[in-house]
Design goal:
- The complex is a heterodimer.
- Chain A contains ten helices and nine strands.
- Chain A folds into two domains: 15-137 and 294-307, 3-Layer(aba) Sandwich (Rossmann fold); 139-292, 3-Layer(aba) Sandwich (Rossmann fold), CATH 3.40.50.1370.
- In chain A, helix 3 (60-71) crosses helix 10 (288-307), helix 4 packs across helix 5 (116-123) and helix 6 (139-153) packs across helix 10 (288-307).
- In chain A, the strands form two sheets. A five-stranded parallel β-sheet of chain A has the order 7-6-5-8-9. In chain A, strands 2-1-3-4 form a four-stranded parallel β-sheet, with helices on both faces.
- In chain A, strand 5, helix 7 (171-180) and strand 6 form a beta-alpha-beta unit.
- By secondary structure, chain A is α/β, with parallel strands linked by helices.
- Chain B is mainly beta.
- Chain B starts with 14 loop residues before the first strand and ends with a strand.
- Chain B has helices spanning 26-32, 69-76; strands at residues 15-21, 43-50, 56-63, 83-88, 91-97, 103-105, 108-109, 126-131, 136-139, 145-146, 152-153.
- In chain B, 10% of the residues lie in helices and 36% in strands.
- Chain B is built from two helices and eleven strands.
- In chain B, the strands form three sheets. Chain B has a five-stranded antiparallel β-sheet, with helices on one face. In chain B, strands 6-8-9-10 form a four-stranded antiparallel β-sheet, with no helix packed on it. Chain B has a two-stranded antiparallel sheet with strand order 7-11.
- The model of chain B has no long low-confidence stretch (mean pLDDT 88).
- The chains are: A alpha/beta, B mainly beta.
């Protein structure tokens, strides 16, 4: 079946803006990109410039976008430390976006405020990709998470997926839940009561997704096909004492993995602190580095279909 | 002026009668309209008036002020069942039912302090109405579902 490219020239502000068909189009495009030799994909971004603006730290998201753009024959410019830009002098987001819009063909934005990418998309003539907006969304992370599940488990439907950690402030969680609502999955949300998912942020999918909320991981983990671990994010807590109370609540180590399904897959958007023991890294259950690798390829696919109407 | 209870407070020669306000919401309506008495208009407020259509209602009569559509939009989210009567020469010159708009711009703040609309200058805060019957609201920018009781004016 030939799918229509609904991504050409479009912003990627929220995963809510894309249908299951759109997501599967991206997954299929990612498959195609992965099969191409370097010189075969270097036409997709040739002569084009990606502009990134990161108001918050990033390792994987920024580097994977840069690496993806380079693999497509394009170049990247940007701001990854606002101290060395006019942002430090008080320049507004609006003006920063307007200027980057003049110098680039596509803009990747990470910003601490919820809704920042939607606002940037109103201002920019070129497409905006949301690389994290406050605790609201991180849509490309969710797309690569879904792609990772698809590739590693062979399907997304009929899986039991546990999401553990900071579900209140974790922006990847909200994008992932809205992405998962397109599939038949059982979801366990495991968090301390103070970090449970914000009900108002899943209002639109509350009746479309099968969610159970838990505080303890030990029993639930036995049922899971996928365990998605998130970091408890110190930087998002208004009160550091509250952070101290909940940090280290969950720890994935060899012991807790003894009673899990043999084909359990452990994911993490990274960076991790101590929520996953480094001793787990060599387990076949640990797929978080593969997940990061899929990230570059899925983002290359996204850039390809945003910049090219009919790349294949 | 069909309901006899409106005569509980005196008829006005000209101005606006806001009728069928949800009970106990009259003061919220006044606040939303920025009416605090300093304007000098005579304002009469009746609370918990028995109503034939609903059990109780509030009524506000504002003399010598004709509410405009923009004002009506403000009331829509506080008391969507209210009706507006424009009075001229003691007669109803215009009867207007409030219609809940698709969205409301530059009147209410998003209650999410981390929303870009509360942190960047020159953004017009926009509240989108998802459900006009049950009044379900969402911020256009941060997408948070908003409790109507958390709405604050800009």
């Amino acid at each position: 079946m030939t799918r229509t490219n609904h991504f050409f020239g479009k912003d990627i502000v929220s995963i809510k803006d894309f249908s299951k068909d759109d997501l599967e189009f991206i997954f299929e495009t990612t498959d195609k990109i992965r099969k191409l030799k370097p010189d075969e994909k270097s036409e997709f971004g040739k002569g084009r410039t990606l502009g990134y603006i990161f108001y918050e730290p990033s390792t994987r998201t920024r580097m994977s976008f840069e690496a993806a753009m380079a693999s497509l024959g394009g170049s990247s410019i940007g701001i990854f430390d606002s101290k060395f830009s006019s942002i430090e002098k008080g320049e507004s987001l609006a003006d920063t976006i307007r200027i980057m819009d003049l110098y680039s063909d596509i803009i990747v934005l990470r910003h601490p405020n919820d809704g920042s990418s939607r606002y940037a998309a109103e201002l920019s003539n070129n497409p905006i990709i949301n690389a994290g907006s406050g605790s609201e969304e991180h849509p490309t992370q969710a797309m690569l998470d879904l792609y990772t599940i698809l590739k590693e488990k062979g399907r997304i439907n009929n899986l039991t997926i546990g999401i553990v950690g900071d579900l209140k402030y974790g922006r990847t969680i909200y994008s992932l839940l809205y992405g998962l609502k397109n599939y038949q999955v059982d979801i366990y949300l495991i968090s301390p009561p103070t970090l449970s998912v914000r009900s108002e942020s899943i209002y639109e999918i509350r009746n479309k997704i099968n969610i159970k909320q838990e505080n303890y991981l030990d029993e639930v983990i036995k049922k899971l096909d996928v365990l998605y671990v998130t970091r408890i994010q110190k930087e998002r807590f208004p009160d550091t004492q509250e952070y101290e109370k909940v940090k280290g609540t969950y720890k994935i180590d060899d012991k807790i993995l003894e009673n899990t399904k043999t084909d359990l897959s452990i994911m993490h958007p990274l960076p991790r602190l101590d929520e996953i023991s480094h001793l787990v890294d060599n387990s076949p259950k640990a797929i978080y580095f593969k997940q990061a690798a899929y990230g570059k390829e899925l983002r290359a696919a996204l850039l390809t279909v945003i910049l090219n109407e009919c790349p294949f | 002026m069909s309901e006899p209870n409106q005569l509980l407070v005196r008829r006005i020669e000209q101005g606006t009668v806001i009728d069928h306000i949800d009970p106990s919401k009259a003061f919220n309506v006044l606040k939303t309209l920025n009416i605090n008495g300093k304007e000098g208009n005579i304002v009469t407020v009746a609370l918990n008036v028995p109503s034939s259509k609903r059990e109780k209602k509030d009524i506000i009569k504002i003399e010598n002020k004709f509410l405009k559509r923009k004002d009506t939009d403000r009331i829509a989210l506080i008391s969507p069942n209210a009706t507006i009567n424009i009075i001229k020469n003691y007669k109803v010159a215009e009867k207007r039912k409030i219609e809940v708009p698709d969205s409301i711009t530059d009147i209410f703040k998003c209650p999410n302090v981390n929303c870009i609309s509360n942190n960047e200058k020159n953004i017009l805060s926009t509240i989108v109405v998802l459900d006009k019957v049950n009044i379900v609201l969402k911020c256009k920018y941060c997408s948070r579902i908003i409790d109507i009781n958390d709405l604050e004016e800009i």
